[in-house]
Amino acid sequence: MMFDIGDKVVYPMHGAGVIEGIEEKEILGQKKKYFVMRMPIGDMKVMIPMENVNHIGLRQVVENEAINRVMDILGEQEQDLATNWNQRYRANMDKIKSGDIYEVAGVVRSLMIRDRAKGLSTGERKMLDQAKQILISEMALVQNLESKEVFTLLDGLIKERDASM
């Protein structure tokens, strides 16, 4: 799949952004073309080798309708994960690496619920922050909102669900 300047894309493990340009760089004597992607959270610029796009799982952001499903996932009750910390961490990391917005939403939901109920280890806290950033960046781009607005919306959803339990 090829992308164009102006496309809104998701870079798994990093989040969503907009392709602002294509540059050719010479590194270690090899010329390669790169997509230049601007990420709204942290106003970061990422250069992605064009030849690696399919391998890393770069994809278009979801359609607006998909955000409704994400909201449903965030509002669902959590199935108690009866795995130890290490197994849970690996399973959640695989979900985040998949780049699938629904999987990432599930990780955010699970970790936020666990945080409110039992607290999180340092590793899981970092994972929650990373998953939230990835999810919020895509939701913000799809809905043309500021990331702060999406964060507030996400937090409100979790609190609503907690109140109804």
Give the secondary structure arrangement, pairings included:
Elements: E1 8-11, E2 15-27, E3 30-39, E4 44-49, H1 53-56, E5 59-60, H2 64-75, H3 85-98, H4 101-117, H5 122-143, H6 147-164
Antiparallel strand pairs: 1-2, 1-5, 2-3, 3-4
User: Terminal Cα separation, in Å?
Assistant: 43 Å
Helix proportion of residues, in percent? 40-55%
Query: How many helical stretches?
Result: 6
- The secondary structure category is alpha+beta
Oligomer: single chain
Largest beta-sheet characterization:
5 strands, antiparallel
Low-confidence stretches: none
The helix/strand order is: EEEEHEHHHHH
What is the tally of beta strands? Answer: 5
Characterize the structure shown:
Helix 3 (85-98) packs antiparallel against helix 4, helix 3 packs parallel to helix 5 (122-143) and helix 4 (101-117) packs across helix 5 (122-143). This protein starts with 7 loop residues before the first strand and ends with a helix. The longest helix is centred in the last third of the chain and has 22 residues, at 122-143. It has a 5-stranded antiparallel beta sheet with strand order 4-3-2-1-5. The chain has 165 residues and is an alpha+beta fold. It contains 6 helices and 5 strands; from the N terminus they run E-E-E-E-H-E-H-H-H-H-H.
